[in-house]
Amino acid sequence: MSFLSGFIAIIGPPNVGKSTLLNRILGTKLAIVSPKPQTTRNRILGIHHGDGFQMVFMDTPGIHKTRTSLHESMVQSALAAFHEVDILLLMIEMGRVHDQEIRSITANLKRVKRPCILAINKIDKGPKDQLLPIIASYSQEYPFDEIVPISALRGDGVDTLLEALKSRLEPGPRFFPEDMTTDVSEAFIISEIIREKIYLHTKKELPYSSAVTVDRMENSNNNLLSISARIHVETDSQKRILIGRGGRMIKAIGRSARPELEKIFGVRVYLDLMVRVEKNWSRDTRALRRLGY
Ligand SMILES: Nc1nc2c(ncn2[C@@H]2O[C@H](COP(=O)(O)OP(=O)(O)OP(=O)(O)O)[C@@H](O)[C@H]2O)c(=O)[nH]1
Ligand SMILES: [Mg+2]
């Protein structure tokens, strides 16, 4: 039997659980997750190694109507994924109506002609008897190759989904060595974990106006990883909120990021966070590039 492999893009509207599924499949936290939409901003590869096969998953930003240059670049990177992969995994969330978003996605699907599996996520949230009518209505919307109900959070249906994907892999090379789970850098993972904590601790527009860059990471001899990172916001008042009274907010963000970084890297972490105002970065294409988008 020849080795099977393929690239699989996880696409869909914001907040349906795409990053949660990637983490679940890989058994490790690679992609950040939050209850707020538009959490993922970049494409991330996660490599799932199996016996005789390899699946290279691409987590993508949610596809939605765009307002700013940042959103535009996020949606473009998600749409580009349609052409770069062998199989598309479209995810929606049970109990949420996605009509508009799904129409624009299926219009794109029709053009690229790739196998497409629909995963209906968050089945733990709704009554099971709602599933059949939902499946029926989506199969009218587009001729999906398979429709699989799952709970990315709990793991229900994920093995079935992996089987459905595996049966559509083609003979191909082992794209990545077996010890590799992602293509993104350590600095990227650090900046994402910090960004996730900003989503967790702050409200309103602040998460969407924040970007994180890592200025320095130093692995000293006594198993201590020393990190300096910078949080970019768009206005002085956002900077004040992010720092908080007596530095309370920025300390809380650091306190929740640190243990997670320690778990990921397996060493003690010293984290130094700074806040900097970069006026209107989310609308400025040059600033976007500088900040990694
Ligand atoms: N109840 C339930 N919640 C889930 C499930 N999967 C994901 N969630 C929650 O849904 C929210 C969004 O999850 P994400 O994985 O960040 O969603 P996403 O599709 O990557 O979102 P964007 O990156 O913003 O497009 C988080 O609060 C998750 O914990 C699930 O199976 N059941
Ligand atoms: Mg995501």
Name of the CATH class of the largest domain: Alpha Beta
Main beta-sheet strand count, sense and barrel state: 7 strands, mixed
Give the overall form.
globular
- What's the total number of strands? 10
Number of domains: 2
List low-pLDDT spans: none
Describe this structure in words.
The chain has 293 residues and is an alpha/beta fold. It folds into two domains: 4-171, P-loop containing nucleotide triphosphate hydrolases (Rossmann fold), CATH 3.40.50; 186-290, K homology (KH) domain (GMP Synthetase, Chain A, domain 3, 2-Layer Sandwich). 37% of the residues lie in helices and 24% in strands. The strands form two sheets. Strands 1, 2, 3, 4, 5, 6 and 7 form a seven-stranded mixed sheet that branches. Strand 4 (87-93), helix 3 and strand 5 form a beta-alpha-beta unit. Helix 6 (186-201) packs across helix 8. The model has no long low-confidence stretch (mean pLDDT 93). The structure holds guanosine-5'-triphosphate (GTP) and magnesium ion. Magnesium ion binds at residues 18-19, 31, 39-40.
